[in-house]
Amino acid sequence: MQVTTGQSVTFTATVAPQSGSGSPTGTVTFKDGANSIGTANLASGIATLMTAALASGSHSITASYGGDTNFAASVSSAVTVTVSAPAKTATTTTVMPSATQLTTGQALTLNVTVAPSSGSGTPTGTLSFLDGGSQIGTATLVAGAGSFSTTALAVGTHTITVSYSGDANFASSLSATVTIVVMAAAKIATTTSDSASAPQITAGAGVTFSARVAPASGSGTPTGAISFLDSGTQIGMVTLAAGAAQFATTSLTAGTHSIAASYSGDANYSASTSSATTVTVAAAAAGDFSLATSSSILTVAAGSEASLSLTVTPENGFKQMVTFSCAGLPAGAECAFNPQTLTPSGSAVSTMLQVEVHATSDAVSHAAGLSFAPPGIQTPWQPARTQNMAWSAAIFAFIGMFGIFGFAQKQKRLARGCATLAVLAALLITASCAGQVGPKLPPPPNTVSYVVTVTASTANGLTHTQFFTLTVTQ
Prior knowledge:
By secondary structure, the chain is mainly beta.
């Protein structure tokens, strides 16, 4: 037996004795498989059940008699009932757009009706709105109608269809294709300006470029992004904020750079590019260092040591390792550095130079052989010289006296001259003897000095020197 979903079916069960006569009484239960679908009382041995509740599919129906005081229970053989879905009424789905041509951002409304292809009735269910097969929206049918609005269609051609899902009574359907053309709206022209925080910088220094975008006419605030170009090559991109953007960089190389700001445009404003701003970048000064000593004079006693400090100050980011050496020391003297090398890292660093003079060095012997006396001070080894001067004066005086007595008779004028000469000689003798009076001063300590050269150098040949005077005392 075949029926459609919702169609009524009447099942009739007849219960009779297998032999003899009589009429069984009681009830008959009708089952769909193991599930009861209803019970009916026997009347003259017949029970009937009517139902429209069978679902689509195949059903195995049996009648089970429960028996009475005179007749035993029994079960009928199964009857197969096939329930199929009823044929749905065909539908027609129609879509009516509010416009077939529009500009970007303009709203499009799609109005849809679903009606039976024949006969009467009101379809229910849902609608799916498709753009080239991709769903862009849904709506629920109300009184056979539904609608959907959007402003999100991009520039280009769109093929719109609407799919009706169907319901229990009405079949699904698909509308005809509606073509919608979306065009770009006429954009407002813009002007872009660009400026630099400094027209001249040194390589490695920072510079900030500022750009501003404004409508060429009217009001409004453009949105989008600014690309900063160095002779056409992009060096940065910044999103506009209130129509302005800034880009900072420290990467410009030495030379001349032409920087322009290029605005990409948005839905309402057209693109534009500024005139170029010229920035000249000078080469950065090479890294270097200066060398200084804590003193220009270092005094050391023979057989001992003394020290002074050396300071290396970096310039222009200098960060190389510096090695030290010294020259000009006397033979047998030594210098040492602690530490032997320095590596500046943004600030000055120092090392200690230590000079040691051994007791057996040349400097010691040189110092032992030196002497000096200030002018006018007699040293212990000067008496012989003074005595010689005194004897010379005495002889000269004797000659003068001889002249006085030997020639007095012959030439009185000559005698008077000799007498004068004798007086002068006497004064000279007195002055010479006066030089012998008073204590004798000891000589000062013996010293010898050397000019020592300190050299600070790097692996790449950068060298600086400093000098100091090394004085060795005995």
